[in-house]
Design goal:
The protein is α/β, with parallel strands linked by helices. It has two domains: 349 residues, ANL, N-terminal domain (Rossmann fold, 3-Layer(aba) Sandwich), CATH 3.40.50; 90 residues, GMP Synthetase, Chain A, domain 3 (2-Layer Sandwich), CATH 3.30.300. It has 14 helices and 20 strands. The strands form five sheets. It has a nine-stranded mixed β-sheet, sandwiched between helices. Helix 9 links the parallel strand 3 and strand 4. It is globular. About 1% of the residues have low confidence.
Length: 451
């Protein structure tokens, strides 16, 4: 415990010396928690107006885009006006990298590439003047989980050279961070990671959803008990209720969901209260990120209605991201969290893992089937629904053999899905594990080509 406290204090000292501007920004972000919801919204709107003016003047792409739309920054005075600002599409981001970035950046920056999980990989620059680390620190305070101590990471990353390994060592010193590459989770490497886990007893686990779930299912099936961490933090894919339940059973700790994208990270995180009640809701970082839930034309939708998510990174002055269509779907939730923070709540992300399911006549959104097993969470470890080109559907299930009447529960779910499909055939397949794509899970897949 003394080592954990020393590690936490050492990180703070190191940051205050090496990145004093980040520490100042962190203190400001914490002060924003004391704002009223109304003041927070006003703060956000002012930042967006400043960003709009900056992008118009400094980014060739946005200048041309807004000119073509007949929009001047001064035309935007209300939220209704903001909805008229042209959206940035994934295709535009991908093919206009050189003109989106500002001509003369005033701060340092880093290059990031998206993983291409939507089939459209791209690259962005992130302003180092205001770091996303600041919001990660703040989100860490929401969890009540100490920062110091040993940790573990299961992501698409590894350190191949001695230089990267040495930097990794310094970044975590005096604690240790053990790593498992989510893109290479063979049984041999899982077993080695488990041995490291037993030795170092990590307090915090950061992982792609698919990676930590594969490890959880492996431990449950093999009857492996590991030293319980304080928390597991998931990202990269929606955290379904069935997957959350498996992680809790396997590791006996709280699970915190996070909404992150390369283009603007982080965007939303869970607090301790939400994790304790296993809620799918997340707090939006609405001071520095602006999320909109819109229809196909970019028109804002009412609270509670599912739509496409647009994000604006209010702080980036190197590579502006304004009303960017992420390719995700979600919805704003009414009310506030019992934790008392002023940040609005959004539902768990519905996108990137859900395609449309096509019926004999019409179609339904894949997220409608994502909760198929919510009434029998413990009957399965995971599932995947795959619609083939001929519209037939395969339901793949990893059954929890320790659950009484698991097959009966699965049969009930399959019958419900069959009723919705009508005469389209449904096949149930039992599997030992449903593979993920480098830690990212796709629950609903459709190969049908829309007319």
């Amino acid at each position: 415990m003394k080592t954990d406290k020393f590690a936490e204090k050492w990180r703070e000292i190191r940051c205050r010396l090496a990145k004093p501007q980040w520490w100042k920004q962190f203190r400001q972000s914490m002060a924003n928690e004391r704002l009223s919801p109304e003041a927070l919204a006003e703060f956000n709107f002012r930042l967006r107006l400043d960003l709009l003016k900056f992008a118009y003047e400094e980014s060739p792409y946005y200048h041309a885009l807004y000119k073509a739309a007949g929009l001047e920054p001064g035309d935007v005075k209300t939220e209704e006006d903001w909805a008229k600002v042209p959206m940035l599409t994934r295709e535009a981001l991908r093919y206009n990298f050189e003109t989106i970035k500002v001509a003369h950046p005033q701060s340092t920056y880093k290059l990031y590439t998206t993983g291409g999980s939507t089939g459209e990989p791209s690259k962005v620059l992130k302003d180092d003047g205001f770091s996303s680390v600041v919001m990660n620190w703040r989100a860490g305070t929401w969890t009540g989980v100490p920062v110091g101590g040993n940790s573990a990471t299961i992501m698409r990353t590894h350190h191949a050279t001695w230089k990267t390994r040495f930097r990794h060592f310094l970044a975590n010193f005096p604690a240790t961070n053990i790593m498992l590459d989510a893109g290479d989770m063979s049984e041999e490497k899982i077993e080695r990671f488990i041995r490291q886990w037993r030795h170092y007893k990590p307090r915090r686990i950061s992982s792609y959803v698919g990676g930590i779930h594969q490890l959880a299912v492996y431990c449950l099936q093999q009857g492996i008990k590991l030293p319980a961490p304080d928390a597991v933090f998931t990202t990269a894919a929606p955290l379904s209720s069935t997957v959350r339940a498996d992680i809790v059973r396997a590791f006996g700790c709280l699970v915190f969901d996070n909404y992150v994208a390369t283009e603007a990270h982080p965007m939303a995180n869970q607090c301790r209260h939400l994790a304790e009640i296993s809620s799918p809701a997340l707090h939006i970082h609405s001071d520095y990120r602006h999320l909109e839930f819109v229809d196909e034309f970019g028109t804002p939708l009412p609270v509670g209605e599912v739509g496409d998510i647009l994000v604006t990174d209010c702080m980036d002055r190197v590579f502006p991201i304004i009303r960017y269509r992420l390719g995700d779907r979600g919805r704003l939730l009414p009310g506030r969290c019992a934790c008392g923070r002023p940040f609005p709540l959004m539902d768990a992300v519905h996108g990137r893992s859900f395609d449309f399911i096509y019926l004999e006549h019409g179609k339904i959104a894949g997220e409608c089937w994502a909760t198929a097993f919510d009434d029998c969470l413990n009957a399965i470890h995971n599932f995947q629904i795959h619609q083939h080109q001929d519209k037939s559907v395969t339901l793949s299930v990893v059954m929890n053999h320790a659950y009484p009447d698991a097959e009966k529960a699965i049969a009930t779910v399959a019958a419900n899905l069959q009723r919705q499909l009508g005469s389209l055939p449904l096949t149930v397949e039992y599997k030992d594990f449903i593979p993920h794509n480098r830690g990212k899970i796709k629950y609903i897949i459709s190969d049908v080509i829309a007319d």
